[in-house]
Every structure is written in structure tokens, then in C-alpha cells.
Amino acid sequence: MSIDHKTIKHISKLARISVDEQRAEKLAGDLNSIFDFIEKLNELKTDNVEPLTSIAETTLKLRSDEVKSKNIREQIIKNSPQDNEDYFVVPKVIE
Amino acid sequence: MSDITKQSLTELIENIRSKKLSSTDVTKAFIDRSEKSEELNAYITNDFTSALDKAKKFDQKPNLDLKLPGIPMAVKDLFCTKNIKTTAGSKILNNFVPTYESTVTENIWNEGAILLGKLNCDEFAMGSSNETSFFGNVQSPIDKDLVPGGSSGGSASAVAGQLTPITIGTDTGGSIRQPASFTGTVGLKPTYGSCSRYGIVAFASSLDQAGPMAQNVKDCALLQEVISSFDPKDSTSIDFKRNHYSKDLTNNIKGKKIGIPKEYRVDGMPKEIEDLWQKGIEYVKECGAETIDISLPHTSYALPTYYIVAPAEASSNLARYDGVKYGFRAKGENLIDMYEKTRSEGFGTEVQRRIMIGTYVLSSGYYDAYYLKAQKVRKLIKNDFDEVYKKVDAILTPSTPSSAFKIGEKTNDPVSMYLNDIFTVPVNLAGLPGISIPAGHDSKGYPLGLQIIGKAFDEQNILNIAYAMEEKINFKNKITDWWIK
Amino acid sequence: MSKKDSEYLINRKDNQYEVVIGLEVHAQVLSESKLFSTSATKFGAEPNTQVSLVDAAFPGMLPVINEFCVKQAIKTGIGLNAKINKRSVFDRKNYFYADLPQGYQISQFKDPIVGEGKVILDMPNGQKEIGIERLHLEQDAGKSIHDLDPQNTFVDLNRSGVALMEIVSKPDLRSPDEVNAYIKKLRSIMRYLGTCDGNMQEGSLRADVNVSVRPKGSKEFGTRCEIKNVNSIKFMQMAIEYEANRQVDLIEEGKTIDQETRLFDTKKNETRSMRSKEDAHDYRYFPDPDLLPLEVSEKFIEELKNDIPELPDDKKKRFIEEFKLSPYEANILVSDIDTAKYFEEVVAKMGKNKDIKLAVNWITGELFALLNTKGLEISQSPVSAKNFAILINLIKNGTISGKIAKTVFEFMIDGDKDPQKIVEEKGLKQQSDPKALEALIDKIINDNREKAIEYKQGKEKLFGFFVGQAMKASGGKANPQLINEILKKKL
User: Fold this and answer.
1) Which whole-number Å values give the CA distances from C286 to B313, B361, B428, C108, C321, in the listed order?
2) Which residue among the candidates B22, B34, B157, B175 is catalytic per the annotation?
3) Complex-level ipTM
4) Is the N or the C terminus of chain A less surrounded, counting Cβ atoms within 10 Å?
5) Quick one: pLDDT at residue B1?
6) C56, C94, C289 member nearest B319 (Cβ)
């Protein structure tokens, strides 16, 4: 298997990480060597194996429907990079 | 009293309880030494001033019944601490100040401990040498330009260098045990679900577990007793009967059956590691335990499985770092441009690499071939352990396939870096507890560790085995204070 | 376009096309707190005041599921006659957007909590069954506000993390009218169950509409387009009509239809491609490692089943059998839970000697007209069911005529007055004393002797004249039946 430049571009778009040409080249090399090593898994036949989705062998606990979190807007907004007391602010969304 | 920082946690507690030392004495001593140890680069953020205040406050009205009475300690910068900057070793959280406390650190402060500061680590805990931190690499107290291991490198360096009596790290694929092994300290990765993940910056949710790091097994047991709790705020936290690990600690391991897995005898493993392992086998036998040769047939598939599962989860867990709510934001012409620049400038190379791997293995057309396949192999790996645990009580292996390496030695070869975790990763995949204890030195005088793997929720048993072995091994860490001028 | 035999077809030259529609309805679960956090869900709060650290995806924050939301989803599943899955799994749907703080939405992809079910629609030409593919629980996103600032988008996370049920239908719908009936039926069922308030203005009910067309009689499906996030039935109908015609035009021109996501522009009344967004969409679903599989026991489900109220279909059946209503009348009364409640309360308050038909006529006639003019819901009716029942009884027992009842009803509106009192105070009681009426009629016949003779000679039309005169003379209060009887005798 080989991860090419185009694939790197596609993944970087999905991951929302801009990658310039030089880094794309380097990344393709790194990922190919990592996937060469990952391919080892293909030696195993796993057709009848149930995938393990959760290592904690217990069932999901349910909480009661109570409002406990109060208005903490100041705390929530405090760390945001742009100053606004009411909203998170981001550059215009272009559809 | 001199040499306060050389004392173990147990000794410090005794001295504070018997009023031979005050919390202020102890706190001052560790602050002094930490201040002299900048060269190690173990801290990202210090909180020395308020630590001293807290120590003084403690001394005015000391509650000596607490488990960590007035004990100062630094913690890995992956734990969110209220009003103290928490970075996860990343530029993207460079200026992030949580308004909340992680459950694990909360448990620690509730038992009387005092925060010294936040310790350096690999960015988002992704690394085996603490070279991926945005805040620079950490030096090992063992030798100049030697890596302390990773990702809890700052934690290992701080404990080994006596900057803190104990600490906590996190372990996703070996991040507590490998640095413990590299620095001659003790590190425990508890059973998945034992310590709450609430308030810990997530790397890979199904693998992450917080755990104690200390100079000896007893200290480690005490800290584990403090941090392990059932937490309704973490849906994967497990409500099981937790031991008083320090009180219940015993060196009597007579009749215990200890498995020796043949698959851990890997190609190219240095002879000194093999010898160390043999010595370990002798020690447990001397303690009255029985060793049994076992097979964990899917061991060699653990690392490839890990490098699918962990990056997949990470790629999703790290999606929240987008410059919108907190942390670093790069200027962008529009929302998407802002995202792409923020994440490209905010994440370091290794983190980006893993996000890319994770995104790829989950993407349309590859999910079954990689992610689903890995989940299935993970099941096989877990089955291996389930099978052998019908016959043995614990498993003994080396902690790492080599001793610590030089800074920069492996940074350009991700795969050789990843191979460091070959013995630790299967434990995370199976959700089991594992402890690394120092067991000897290599020809260069660098520490080497042995790992004891237990059954799920059987921390007490591996602590006991470690405790018994520790007595036999009688390891002395060679700390020369090379970094102190 | 033709509506032959109520079939919805699109005609072009010699070709007729059938429209195939499937809906993904997003219904907000009625609950106090959010699906995975403990913040409030109230509508209309100040921006970002109902946001917890979990909702804003702070580092290290973890989801913990709300039991009530799980129960609500299961109850809705029972209401849709659907299979309840004892084991379901929460997955992450990964994509970046300003109002999606985690960078993923927690949803159920492979193993939803509710499987296949069905709902029955009452259409003018009979009943139609619409298959339900599945129902799953998921988180709502926040809200992006684009018009507060020219350079920036503002984000309000109050809605972020609120529980939604996504109800996916099979592609069984064939016309805008069926879509209308389907949405109303779903809404009705959920309001009966108390699982969703169905308030479309507040966004509690929205839908993605999948539309495709095919030549009439064809068994194969055409390429479908998905129209995202339509928030009113009217817009859904308009969007379907536009989209179906657009697709037919493409086929007629020999072009192909691209499977894509489209947006309905309510101002221009057209659908528009969102292709730019589509490119980046590879959601990379995988099981959320912060959550374990959701497992519910048989007992848990049984207890919820016992808690299910009588639903519209059963109520309709009962109304027809018990009250001898027509299916049409029963439908009107059961479709909205508050109407059904009002009606049943009226029936209960009318007591033994009740006239249900009369009550139904008055509810669907006078009461509905009143609510309509005032713009009120039946739950806000100015006339209570109790007083309404008294009024119907007054008509039934002859105390007042239907005509006078309308006057009384007018008086009742202001302050929910007791009609009995109104009748007494205003002296509106019907005259049913035969002696008094006979005297009154005698006088009228006397005064109109010539007309009486004409009537007797066969000009029967004049009977109405005498009735009118008698009613006039009594101030409208005379019992019309008695007037008729006496007149027939005397003339």
C-alpha cells in the first residue's frame, strides 16, 4: 500500500490541518513507513472475531434528568481567543 | 534536617506526622531543588509561591490523619488544574487556564497534598522520549542529553531527580512505565476504569489511564490508594471494591504463579535485557513464587493495533482544538482557513502525524481494513491474557526492549521510536494493570526496568510482587546531580 | 401535474413521474437537562447561559448519559410500533463546524436504540402505512449567527448537546400531502407520549427530506437528493414540489441527477446545491470510546410500555365505537392531544343524558372558529370544558335553542362564565310552556287571518312565515319544536 501526495492532501483537509508541499512529502514518507508496519495485521484471519469496542466490561450507567450546571457563561467564554461577553466569535463562515 | 528531598514519601509522611518536619520545611526543600534544576526542564509551569502559602496554612492547622499530609508534589501537565495553566505540552493550549480540577488531582488535594507545579510531557502525551513537547525536551537526571522516556518524561525526571517526592503521570501505551524504567523509578499503570479520566486532557480514551510514579513500591501503592476512585462523571469509571493498597501491601508472594511469556523474547533484544529478565525470574522464585512459561501468541500484533486505535481516537479527541473556544488561534480569512492554520501552527509534528494516521484509518473505504481490523485484533490480544490468567496470577516481562537513548537519536524515525513501547502497549490494549520497577543497570550504568502485569483490578497483587522483588533487587539509582551547578 | 384519483404525479408530454420521498425527522426530546450534560434545555434563554463545560467541549470533559432521554426514545419507539433494541451503541460523527464544539456529534450510527416500525396515515382515499426505518438518539449542535457582524460569525451553544431523536422513514411517501399527514401524525404521537413538544417554530421538529422521481409504474428508485433542515410543513411541501419538478426536467432533458445535499431557499422557493460542503464530508463514524454500549433490560422496556397512554389510533377507534362518531369526526378530535383531552372532559362533564354528536358539532364548529379568530390553542380556550359541557346540556334539555346558545356562548368567552347563569341573568330561557305559546300563536293567527286562509288553501310556504312571527314575538326564546307542533294544530 502506498499513501500518495493526493491522499495526504485529502486527509489534511478532513483533519483541518493545512499542509504545505514540503511537509506533505515528508508526511507521505512517514505514513508509508508506519503503514508498512501496520500491514502486519493482515497476516491474521479475523473474519469470525467480534471487534472489541469497549475494554471496560460493564454497562453504561445512566444519570437522572436533573439540571445541575448553572449559567457559567463567564467561565465558558473566558478562555476564548476573541473578546465578546455573550458569544464565541469566529471568522465569517463561507458556505 | 538535611537531605529532605532524598527521603521517600513514606519517610516524609512519618516525619511530618511526628512533627520532625513541617510541611513548610518539606515544601521549601523541594522548591529549592526544583529551582536549581531548571536544566532538566521538568516543569512547564510552577506554582511555588502559592505552594509555600498552602504549606504554611497546613502547618498552622495540620490535619495529620490525611493520607498525604502537607506533602508537596508536582503533576503531569495533562491534568487540568483549577486556575493553573494546563498545556498538555502543546502550543495549542499554551494559554489555557481551566476553571475546573481533574478528579484524580482533586483526590490528591483532598488528602492534604500541595501542588508544586505542572510537569513537562510529550505533546498530548504522544511520544516516548519527551522530545515532542512544545516546551522543549526534558533531560534525564541519569545523564546529560539522555531522554527520560515519555510521555510522562517530566514526571519521571522530577521523581528521579528528587524535584518532587511522588507524582502522577498518564499511560496510554507505556507513558508511565517506560519513563519509570528509563529513570530508575517505579510507575504503575492501573486497570482501565480504576482512575477517573475526568479532567485529564484526552489522548486515546479507551487506553488512557492515570497512575502513580514514585521512588519505591510502597509510595506508589499509597498514591494509587489516593487517586483510584469510582467517578460518576466518567462513564468508563468502574465501581469495584478498591483495596487499601499501602496498608494491604505484603512481600509474601509464596505460591503465586507468575507467567513468563515467550513472545516477549524479541529479535534484537540486547543480552543485558534478557539477563535482567532471568534475574527477575530468579528473584520471584526466591520469594517463593512459581514461574510458568506461557504464550501470548498475538503479542507482536499489539503495536500495529495500537498505532491504529490510539491515533483514530486521538484524531477525534483532538478535533476540539480548533481555535474557537480556548487556546491558540491563528488568523484566518474565514472559518475553514482559521481552522487549518490554527491546527497546523498549534500542533507539533508528531501530533499532526498521528492525527493524519487516525483520520486515514477511519476514513471512508479504510475503516474496515484498519480500524475494524484493529478492534478485532485487540479482542484477540485480550483473549490471550484471559486465557493465560486461568493459569497464572501475574506476568513478568522486561519493561522496555532497551535502556534510555540519547536525545535526538530516534526523532527522525517514528517507527523505531514506536518500538520502544512494544512490551507496554499490550497491557493498555487489554485494559490491565502493569507496574515497572527498577531492576538493574546496563553497561552504561543506565537503569533497566521489569514489568509485572496483573489481572484486571488486581493492582494489590502486582504491587505485592513488586514489593517482594524490590527487596531482593535492592536497586540504587545513580543520581549524580550533574545538572546542578 | 395532475391529481387523478388523488395520485400525485408529475406530467411531461407523454410521461408521468411518481415522486418518492423519505424523511429524516429531528425531534427534540422533552427533558429538563441535556443528553450528556446537566445543563438546562429551555428555549429562548440568553446566549451561552445554558452551556456546561461538557457542552463547550473543554479538555478532559466527558459525556454521561441522561436516563430520561433514553426512556423518551424508547417510549417514542413503542409509539411507532417499533422494535426496541436492547443494546445500542453511540458513535462519533466527525466534522468541523463553528457550532460543533467537540468536532464531532455523538450519534448512533450502526446500532440505533429503535429499529423498524410503522405509522398509519389517514388519507382522503383511505389509510396508508408508512414504514419507519429506525430511530436514534443524538446531540443537537449549537447555533451560528451570521448576521450580527459583517466579518464574523457568532456562536451560541445553548442548544449544543440537547437530545434529539432522529426518526428515519422508509421511502414510502409519495406526495406533499402524505408528507403533511406523516409529520402531523408523528407530531401527534410524540405529543401524546410527551416525548417531544413538536413545536416547529422553536425548532423542536425539523426534517431532512429525501426526494427522488421515477417513471410511473417503475419499481426502481431514482437518484435521490437530500434537502437539509427544513423547519415547516409548508416549506417541506414546497421544497418537494420544486425538487421533484427539477429532477423530472433533468430527466426529460436527458441529463443525470447528481446524488447531493441541497438547501431549500424559502425566499426564492427553490432548492440549491450545497456541493461545496459535501466534498469535505467523510464523517469517519466510530464507536465513542468515552461511552459504553447502552444496554436496557426487558423489564426496563416493559415498565415503559405500561406507562404508554392511549395513542391517537386507539383513541380514534374507541371514539368511533363508544361515541358512534364518524371516522372523520374522530380524526379531527384525536389528531391533537389537547383537543382529545378537551373533548373527553366535555363528555365526562355532560353526565348521563348527553348528546355527543351535538358536543362534537359545537367543538368543531363554534369553538374551533373562536380559537381560530383569536389565534389560540385549545389548551388556552377561554371557555372551559366544564362550562362548555353545561352549554351543550342546556341545548340538549331544551332550556335554550341552538340559536340562543350562540348568544350565550358569546357571553361565556369573557371570563369563562357559567352559561346557566347567563341564561338566567339575561332571561334567555327557552319558552316551552305550551299554554303561553298557544296564546301567543292564537294572537298571531288572529292578526294574520288572510295569510292563514291562504295557507289552508295550500300555500304551504307560509308555514315558515308563521314560525318566524312566533319566534319574533317570543324574542327568539320560543321552543321551535313546540311552535311547529302548535302551529300545525291551529292552522
Assistant:
1) 9, 11, 19, 10, 51
2) B175
3) 0.97
4) C
5) 47
6) C94
